[in-house]
Amino acid sequence: MPEQKSRIVRCSLIQASNVEAASQPLAKIREAMIEKHVGLIRKAAAAGAQIVCLQEIFYGPYFPAEQSARWYDFAEAVPDGPTIKLMQGLAKELRLALIVPVYEIEAEGFYYNTAAVIDREGQYLGKYRKTHIPHLEPGFWEKFYFRPGNLGYPVFDLGFCKIGVYTCYDRHFPEGARALGLNGAEIVFNPSATVAGLSEYLWKLEQPAHAVANGYFIGAINRVGREAPWNIGEFYGQSYFCDPRGQILAEAARDKDEVLTADLNLDMIAEVRKTWQFFRDRRPDLYGDLVKP
């Protein structure tokens, strides 16, 4: 019998600092950040990436640092808005899949923190809406902007692997991480915006734990820099890939824009799950209390 080839998938995470001041016109902010990210996506493509994930609401600053109705005009439709259409064309041109986190408007007054998934043919496969919405000091006023996600925990089949998305604050909740594993995710991407001093010590604790508990890879992304005028803290980067054993495979810098690229050998998933039979040994018949209000 011919030797079976390993299922190696090359992925890139893009962490980047904001370009324009938050006081600039929203169109100018969006245009500058999209232009920057298009260049970084092309860099990932040149490195051979098959999947590229962008950071949370990639086309601007982390505006939930304040509560202002001005930012409602930053939202767009998914998938029919201009950003997703542009990224569909780019995905098709470069032959790579894209996870594109944006601010979504579904209807007037209905806003979500959403990540669109686009395949290598430029086809829109669907979206994930951030499920758990924080409202915390200092400067994480997300309930002012986002409704809780209502699409569950979809897994997207790219043909060569299956991926899921779990956004920022979601990572503190193991229930959705487990649901993504049960739904068949092999790689889970977590686009984030988190600052030093609040939960930095959890950054490399929780997500490797999710990877181990569910036997999949994780790509965790955090933006970089300080964002005026709010200055809620340092977005400390350190995006990373983690394998199903909880080991960090590759890690980006703390304080600079970076395209982090790594090869993920998906054969490790079966190997790890044959050793640690966590899915086999689950007891859902005894977990009813977990879903009580």
Q: Which range best describes the helical content: under 10%, 10-25%, 25-40%, 40-55%, 55-70% or over 70%?
A: 10-25%
Oligomeric state of the chains present here: single chain
Mean pLDDT: 96
How many domains make up the 3D coordinates? 1
* Unreliable runs: none
Q: CATH homologous superfamily name?
A: Carbon-nitrogen hydrolase
List the helices and strands and how they pair.
Blueprint: E1 8-15, H1 26-46, E2 51-53, H2 82-94, E3 97-107, E4 110-118, E5 124-129, E6 135-136, E7 140-141, E8 156-157, E9 162-165, H3 174-182, E10 187-192, H4 200-203, H5 206-214, E11 217-222, E12 224-225, E13 235-236, E14 240-242, E15 248-251, E16 258-265, H6 267-275
Parallel strand pairs: 1-2, 2-3, 9-10, 10-11
Antiparallel strand pairs: 1-16, 3-4, 4-5, 6-7, 8-9, 11-14, 12-13, 14-15
Throw out a few tags for this protein:
six-stranded mixed beta sheet, 22% helix, 6 helices, 16 strands, globular, Nitrilase/N-carbamoyl-D-aminoacid amidohydrolase, 293 residues, alpha/beta
Give a verbal description of the structure.
The protein has helices spanning 26-46, 82-94, 174-182, 200-203, 206-214, 267-275; strands at 8-15, 51-53, 97-107, 110-118, 124-129, 135-136, 140-141, 156-157, 162-165, 187-192, 217-222, 224-225, 235-236, 240-242, 248-251, 258-265. The protein has 293 residues and is an alpha/beta fold. It has a single domain, classed as Nitrilase/N-carbamoyl-D-aminoacid amidohydrolase (4-Layer Sandwich), CATH 3.60.110.10. Strand 9, helix 3 (174-182) and strand 10 form a beta-alpha-beta unit. The longest helix is centred in the N-terminal third of the chain and has 21 residues, at 26-46.
